[in-house]
């Protein structure tokens, strides 16, 4: 039930008395970190309850009055909805919760910086504001929101007010150190997170915090470099040689073996099976698969044109014979602009719908809970490399700019491939096997 519907229920005495008694209140949440609700009692009158979220991530509750379920309002102990809600807001904003509450904010993603820079001095916040505004014009919305979220959480509160002309390498390092010493964030809120001792983290937890720190530094360097190129900053000495934490980007991609990929195909329902096969034949992202039409099949090359999506470039990928026949079969009798991959009822696939059914399928097959639909892209690349396909071909099929991404992401596969290729090509023949066990060195005088 939505907050609006729940509010209409608990405002009415007759409606709220029809609710099932339970220990948990029926809440409405006007803002993130704030909630107001009605706690239904089986025999007695219900209570009005307010709740806030604390900086530690826990909740704190307070009763703000008894509901007028069976008695008249006296605005002392027994209060109606409006009076109870006013008391809740007073408690939300009071001194009693000031030290422990998180900052309230509207629901939804924060799509802009938490600061509006003004004044003649060109600060880091000015550079961030111009950078994010420019980046939004050609980047995907999700990418923009991720950048804004990191900037709001770590850069703005740490050095946002620092004048760019006064920046030092120490300022840049302070951002990285703050990220490492901040607890993992949930969501994209502007409120501060709990500070922690990095040495108390496990090695893997600390590695992940450092990955976030490196990503945040990349945003900061990009914003400052753009301002420097446009002549708004005199020099780039403060960040030119800044480096992030080393040796933290360990690729841990989830992929399926040939056997498990076949099991996945066999167990899927028909419409989902077609989507899975398309992913295994092409290595395409889910958003790219949704857009494939009969007109994208290139018969002369037995290839498929993949339309650009968001920030992804358009590309042409080769198909195996089996994959080419698969797409030709889907295209029969269809208009050239009709999507090839549709649900059983003729409707369009939605990302969340695919994720839900794919997750359920993987669970039934006993796969790890980390396997998602995007894992098929990793499976495609891994199986190509295992079969001896050169990394440059895999890179082109996936749409990467260079080989670095493939080698870095699929090191677990490319290492094995390189080992096999090395042994196949490098056969020195310096000594014969029996010589390995001889006590006489080659060339010694006997």
Tally of separate helices: 17
Report helical residue fraction: 40-55%
Could you describe the largest sheet, including whether it forms a barrel? 5 strands, mixed
Radius of gyration: 30 Å
How would you describe what is shown here?
- By secondary structure, this protein is of the alpha+beta class.
- It has 17 helices and eight strands.
- The model is unreliable at 188-192 (pLDDT under 50).
- Helix 4 (124-136) runs antiparallel to helix 5 (141-159).
List the helices and strands and how they pair.
Elements: H1 3-11, H2 13-16, E1 26-31, E2 34-39, E3 47-53, E4 59-67, E5 78-79, H3 81-92, H4 124-136, H5 141-159, H6 169-180, H7 203-229, H8 237-240, H9 258-267, H10 270-282, H11 286-290, E6 297-298, E7 303-306, E8 315-318, H12 321-331, H13 351-365, H14 375-386, H15 391-398, H16 403-409, H17 411-425
